[in-house]
Structure formats: structure tokens, C-alpha cells
Amino acid sequence: MQVKLYLQIPIVIIGSFINAGLFYFGQYFLEKAVHDSSTELVFIEVIANIINYAFVFFFWSLSYFSYHFLLKFTQAEMNSLRMQATMKETELNKIKSQLNPHFMFNSMNSIRALIDEDPSKAKEAVTQLSNILRNTLMMEKNKLIPFEDEMKIVNDYLNLEKIRFEERLAFKIESTPESASFVVPPLLLQTLVENGIKHGISKLTRGGEIDIRSSVKNDILTINIRNTGVYNKNKTSDSGFGLKNSLERLNYLFGEKGTVTIENEDEMVLTKINIPRSKEIR
Fold it and tell me: Which terminus in the chain has less CB density within 10 A, N or C?
């Protein structure tokens, strides 16, 4: 049975005085029996001795309960951390299960559109997709992968989309050498690039361009993805899928330092990702 803290304190104090009284009188009668002493009890001395003994019992009890309290608190903290880790793992797996079918659906649609129009380009598209799928399967067990590996997936994806859009899609990728020392969640950038094409460039008759640049400052990797189009934050559609899930993944892995923002900038849509440095590579 658990007793509340505000009730435990008076119980310990009262118990300390009871134990002090029993100890004092037990000691007194034992000495009297052994030494046949006829020393009379003096009330003031009895009270003073009992109070002194009570202090000793109280501090001993305080030390005892403090030790067990800290022990239980530590165990509870460890259990809480284990539970949080389990919940975090479950959420990450849930997000991954949402991302992979989303990516597969759009990629297969790109290839299907090419089969009748240009079989040779369709074969090339299958090769590009197989490269992406092979890398994706290898990364399934990893929460974080090297930035360079993620950029290879993005490059393959953009080449695949270039076959479908032809002259309607232009892209450019630039990354600083310092970016290679960072790790990112698998398919994070690919999903955001896919969003830029699907909800921006693909809706424009003239098409557009997508520009990806990375830089490092104060141990923070910043990736800027610019694509032709207009971002309407008040419009409710599935365009928020990539942004919402990407932000959730970064928050689970990096806390508040992992951020994703999207805004309009000079007739372009700018998606900015901030990722702090991590010691984990694989």
C-alpha cells in the first residue's frame, strides 16, 4: 500500500519518537537488571534523552527512505526512457510505412506513362527505379544514413522524373564538402523533392526547375530546396504530407533542432531543412 508523502513525514516523526522511547526504556531496564541499579528516572532527563534518540532514528529513517526513493525514481526513469524509445521506434516505423508506398505509387505512375510512348526510355526509367529501390531496401533498417547516400537517391529520382517531363524539368544539385560528414533520415530529401515536383512543377504547363543546395554553419546542416511554383499554406491538400511527416521524423530523431520550413521566395517555393550533427552514421 502506497502512503502519500504528506502523510509519511508525520508517521516517520511519530515512529522515531516511539522507537526512541522503546530504546531508552529498554536500555534503562536492561542496565537496571544487570547492574541492580536503583537510579530513579528524572522526567526532564527522560524527555531530553528520548528527543536525542528520536533525532537519531529520524535521520536514519530519512536516509533509508531517501535511498529507496532515489532507487525507485531511477528505475521509473529508466522504464520511462525505455517506453519513450519504444514509442519513438513505433512512430518512426509508422512514418516509414507511409512514405514507402507513397514514393512507389508516384514512381510506378511515371514509368507507366512512358511504356507506350517510348519503350527505350521506359527501360531507362526502370533502371533508375531499380537503383532507388535497391538503395531503399538496404536503408530500411537504418534510422540515419550518410548525406551523400541520400543525395544519390535524389539524383536518381530526378533523372527518372527528367525522362517523364523532358524539357519541362530542369534541376541542379550543389553541396559543400562539409555536408558529407552529416547523416539524414532515409528518403527525407527525396520526399520533399517529390512534393516540389508533384505540387509545383507538374502543375505548370511550361514546367519549371528545382535547385538543391546544402551548407554547414555552427554544426547545422542546412539544405535549401527551391522549386518553381507557389505555396499556399491555407490550401488543404495532400501537399502537406511530405512536410508534416518530414518534420515529425526530424523531431523524433533530433528534437527541436531538426526543422523543416516552407515559404514563397522570388516566384519560387523554398523548403529549408536544418539537421544538427549526429555521431550516428549507420
Answer: N
Widest CA span of the chain, in angstroms?
A: 118
Beta bridge partners, 145, equal 184
pLDDT for 183 equals 93
Same domain, 23 and 105: no
From the centroid of its chain, how far is CA 240? 20
**How many beta carbons lie within 10 A of that of residue 181, not counting itself?**
15
* Whether residue 170 sits in one domain with residue 97: yes
Dihedral over alpha carbons 88, 94, 96, 102 (to 10 degrees): -150
Cell numbers given for 148: 551523400
pTM listed for this prediction? 0.61
- For the stretch 199-230, pLDDT in tens is 889 889 899 999 999 999 999 999 999 999 99
CA distances, 48 to each of 19, 51, 128, 208, 270 (Å): 14, 5, 90, 91, 79
How many domains would you assign to the chain?
Answer: 2
**Residue with more model confidence, 98 or 155:** 155
Instruction: List beta partners, residue 171.
Output: 210
pLDDT at 134 over 70: yes
282 in a domain, yes or no? no
Strand 259-265 to strand 220-228: parallel, antiparallel, or no bridges (unpaired)? Answer: unpaired
Find, among 225, 223, 271, the residue nearest to 244 by Cα. Answer: 271
Angle between helices 147-165 and 43-115 (to 10 degrees): 30
Contact 154, 193 (CB under 8 A): yes
Helix (H) or strand (E) holding 180: none
Kindly state whether residues 64 and 128 are assigned to the same domain.
no
Same domain, 45 and 98: no
